[in-house]
Input
Amino acid sequence: MLTYATGKAARQLGSLGLRYTERQLYYETCRLLLPWWRYLPFNLAVPVAWPRFAAALAELQAHGADLAGLLPPTVAHVSSATTLPPDLQLFGLPRVLLCSDASIVAMLDANGLLLEAGCPVLSVAQASPLPPMLGQMLQQGGGRVYLLHHANVSDMKLAAELGPRLHLPEGTRYTALGLRPTHALRLRLFVLREGETDEAALGVNVTPKDRHWLAGGRSAELAAMHPLRFMRGLRRLLYAEAPTPNRWTQLRRWPHLGHMSWP
Output
């Protein structure tokens, strides 16, 4: 049953033409096992433990099943290295997307987000401490630093502390995009259950609703979002910062561009 569901989940993700990680395949399998998850007004715990899923995936791989788009675990952790892209300063906008999960960085890179969004995508490990080359890029004016993180206690603390810790150049804006507990609840994501957390240990930069959710021992991973929805949402957030050309200015310029450009 679990092996069949895992294979079906892999075929569904593969049909989208996206590259995805083992954790994303894990949550897609969970969605297949409990197809009514989206109709509940709360977060469900994962219906199958990770070791059982890993065993089912290993069985599929041993039998040569079609797992198109699945990123190997070795590739998923390449981005945790402290090296930076050599063409960092060639990006069009002085902004960078950071992520607390190196496997998600590899997934975004494999799906071409780095080129589409016109900004480097790095793990937190790659950007801590802030490399001089990255600081120079952000100093070009209007620098932006975005952070993607899990909805758990450690990453919520990271989101609150990372901006000051990086010592960003003056004028650079830092924004933690999430995942926040309110996002996880709204999206009905599957959650992992941990031990209850002392609310006093969560810090002051957490809303009461998020604090209550985290104190109950819940955590949600970025991989719990459907890969296609995750990519679309991230594109909307990043493209909103791109400069929008003025159509009227372009209209006035067209007659001067050549006889083929104006009726």
Remarks:
- The chain has two domains: 2-70, 74-239.
